[in-house]
Amino acid sequence: MKNIYKYEDFLEKQIIDYIDFSINESQGIKTIWDKTISKLKNLSAEAKFRVMKHLMVSLLAFNSIFAVTNMVNQSSADQQTKDMAIEIINKKSKEDIPTEEISPEKDDKWKKGYEFEISEKGIKHIKEEETLKLKAYQIGDGMVTIGYGHAEPASKSNYKVGDVITEEEAEQLLKKDLKVFSEGVKKIFRDWEEKGRTIEITQEMFDALVSISFNTGVGGLRGSSLIQDIKRGKFEEAGKKIKTFRVSKKFPGLASRREKESKLFLSSV
User: Which residue from 29, 127, 186, 216 could staple onto 114, CB 3.0 to 4.6 Å apart?
Assistant: First the structure.
């Protein structure tokens, strides 16, 4: 019996993970509904209700009650499943079940994520964290680093360990890198908007995200759970996750940097 419960817990988690992934990918509500309902047959009544509640709350976070209700009523699900969903929708409308997304009050400081450029404050922060190194070096990551954290694969680098550049050259490299990573961050928001999700952030948030991508790469940021929190408007949770993002025993010095990035990100929430 214990193994049966474990299997059901595992199955329930898989379904909820599917719902979260599908919401994050902005799949259509009918597709998410149909696929979720098809996965419920092996769950107990209690587990079905928990999954259904998670599904409805997730859908209602980004769609109107009318749209979700209409979709449920027109679906091919059995009447019992529909009734369960409608019950949860009605409860939300009356009691305001907490949704996954909490939207802060917006003012002029909030803009679409791709409308920003990194600020002077953001550039100063990155300079302080990277520190200026005029002589090329390696730290064992397969990269040659010089200037303000400018890194190139050792096999393709224009620099070799020991090469020296001027401060002016370091500034030029930084300017190019900031352009690359700023555009990388902006592309994340553009891609979301193309899929129907427009997210507004602040200058401080943008600066923090550029700093993180400068350190970990845009791919590392794009694949993180904190960027998914931002996509869902969960800014406080994203800010908290920044504190531990990619911090490890191998790179303990990142803890201080992440604390500053988290503070910067959350300063306008």
Answer: 186
Question: Is residue 140 one of the residues assigned to a domain?
Answer: no
- The model carries a pTM of 0.62
For 179, other C-beta atoms within 10 Å of its C-beta total 12
In the chain, % helix, strand, coil (3-state, to 5) comes to 60, 5, 30
CATH number of the structural domain spanning residue 199: 1.10.530.40
Handedness of CA 142, 146, 151, 156 (dihedral sign): negative
Exposed e or buried b per residue across 87-112, where buried means at least 16 C-beta atoms within 10 angstroms of its C-beta = ebbeebeeeeeebbbeeeeeeeebee
Catalytic residue list contains 130:
yes
* Structural contact between residues 196 and 26, judged by C-beta atoms closer than 8 angstroms: yes
What is the DSSP code string of 207-246? Answer: HHHHHHHHHH-HHHHHTSHHHHHHHTT-HHHHHHHHTTTT
Residue type, 144: V
Structural domain including 230 reads 111-130+167-266
φ, ψ of residue 267 in degrees (nearest 5):
-65, -20
Q: What is the pLDDT of residues 193-210, one digit of tens each?
A: 988 888 999 999 999 999
Report DSSP state, residue 164.
Answer: B
How far the first Cα of the chain sits from its last, in Å, is 47
CA proximity to 212, closest of 240, 181, 180: 181
Tens digit of pLDDT for each residue in 49-80? 888 888 888 887 777 787 888 888 888 888 98
Residue 23: closest CA among 196, 204, 212: 196
Integer Cα distance of 236 and 240 in angstroms = 6
CA angle 13, 15, 20 (to 5 degrees): 90
Q: Pick the catalytic residue: 100, 120, 129, 130?
A: 130
